[in-house]
UniProtKB/TrEMBL annotation:
InterPro entries: DNA_helicase_dom, P-loop_NTPase, Pif1-like_2B_dom. Transmembrane segments: none annotated. GO terms for cellular component: replication fork. Keywords: ATP-binding, Helicase, Hydrolase, Nucleotide-binding. GO terms for molecular function: ATP binding; helicase activity; hydrolase activity. Coiled coil: none annotated. Residues 114-164 form the DNA replication helicase domain. It comes from the Eukaryota. PANTHER family: ATP-DEPENDENT DNA HELICASE (PTHR23274:SF48), DNA HELICASE-RELATED (PTHR23274). Residues 43-89 form the DNA helicase Pif1-like 2B domain. This is ATP-dependent DNA helicase. GO terms for biological process: DNA replication.
């Protein structure tokens, strides 16, 4: 769902789209040549989308928000979860402006072969932890599945008017209520020790 929303939003942004691909070779231990693994064809590896790793194909435009997927330079504010906005797209580097943290407004260059970023018009509830956002659109096609998840999602927004929630069942019918999953053992423990 997050990927679909990000793709849709990218298509709404005017401007030229640049596509970046991951590196498709593995160097030998001594740094020469490349290793071939017939049991792991490149075509198969390129379909994998493990969390925390950049996708094989990254499509970007100037002006889109992105999320850093790993720590690059903590002293410069380039940490996992930092949001940036793309300012310039080069062949071997990306110029971006930091949107969050103590380095807001700083311009940085991300020189990489495979950029550790992803579009972030939309993000998972887990990735939103620690973020303060002016506008949050919460799309709950399924009920939240663990204790505290609804709280984390709703508490990201800085004002009540900045929050919009869409909750629907499996048939796509809008729901007026949603479950707030509670870990009952925590409540029982609090009552016993209190």
């Amino acid at each position: 769902m997050v990927g679909q929303i990000n793709d849709y939003m990218l298509n709404q942004i005017p401007g030229e789209e640049s596509t970046y691909y991951s590196s498709d070779s593995i160097a030998n231990a001594d740094g020469t040549g490349s290793i071939s693994h017939p049991e792991y064809p490149i075509e198969f590896l390129n379909t994998l989308q493990p969390g925390g790793l950049p996708n094989y194909e990254l499509k970007l435009k100037v002006g889109v928000p992105v999320l850093l997927l790993r720590n690059i330079d903590q002293t410069a504010g380039l940490c996992n979860g930092t949001r940036l906005i793309i300012k310039r797209l080069g062949r071997w580097s990306i110029e971006a402006e930091i949107l969050t943290g103590t380095h807001i407004g700083d311009h940085v260059f991300l020189p990489r072969r495979q950029y550790p970023i992803a579009l972030c018009f939309a993000m998972t509830i887990n990735k939103s932890q620690g973020q303060s956002l002016k506008h949050v659109g919460l799309c709950l096609r399924h009920q939240v599945f663990c204790h505290g998840q609804l709280y984390v999602a709703v508490s990201r927004v800085t004002t009540r008017t900045g929050l919009k929630i869409l909750s629907c069942d499996e048939e796509g019918q809008e729901l007026k209520t949603m479950k707030n999953i509670v870990f009952k053992e925590v409540l029982n423990e609090a009552c016993i020790s209190g």
